[in-house]
Amino acid sequence: MPNRLSREKSPYLLQHANNPVDWYPWGDEAFQKAAEEDKPIFLSIGYATCHWCHVMERESFEDQEVADLLNRYFISIKVDREERPDVDHLYMTVCQVLTGSGGWPLSIFMTSDRKPFFAGSYFPKSARLGITGFMDLILQLAHVWRHQRDKVRQAGDEITRMLQPQSPPGGGSSFGPRVLGKAYEQLRMSFEDRWGGFGKAPKFPTPHHLTLLLRWHARHPQSEALLMVEKTLAAMHHGGIFDQVGFGFHRYAVDEKWLVPHFEKMLYDQAMLAMAYTEAFQVTGKPAYEKASRKIFAYVLRDMTDPQGGFYSAEDADSEGVEGLFYVWTQEEVKQVLGEEEGQLYCQFYDISPEGNFEEHRSIAHISRSIAEASRQYDMTAEALETLLTAANRKLFAAREQRIHPLKDDKILTSWNGLMIAALAKGAQAFRDPRLSQAAARAADFVLTALRRDSGRLFRRYRQGEAAYPGYADDYAFVVWGLLELYEATFAIRYLEDAARIQETMLDLFWDEQDGGFFYTAHDSEKLLVRDKELYDGAIPSSNSVAALNLLRLGRMTGNTAWEERADRLFRTFFHLVSDYPSAYTHFLHAVDFALGPCREIIITGDLRQETTQQMVEAVHTAFLPNRVLLHWAPGEEAGRLAALAPFVRDLQTAATGQTAVYLCENFACRNPMTSIDELKEALPLSLAFSSPTA
Question: Which residues have C-beta within 8 Å of that of residue 571, sequence separation ≥ 6?
Answer without folding.
Answer: 172, 174, 175, 548, 591, 592, 595
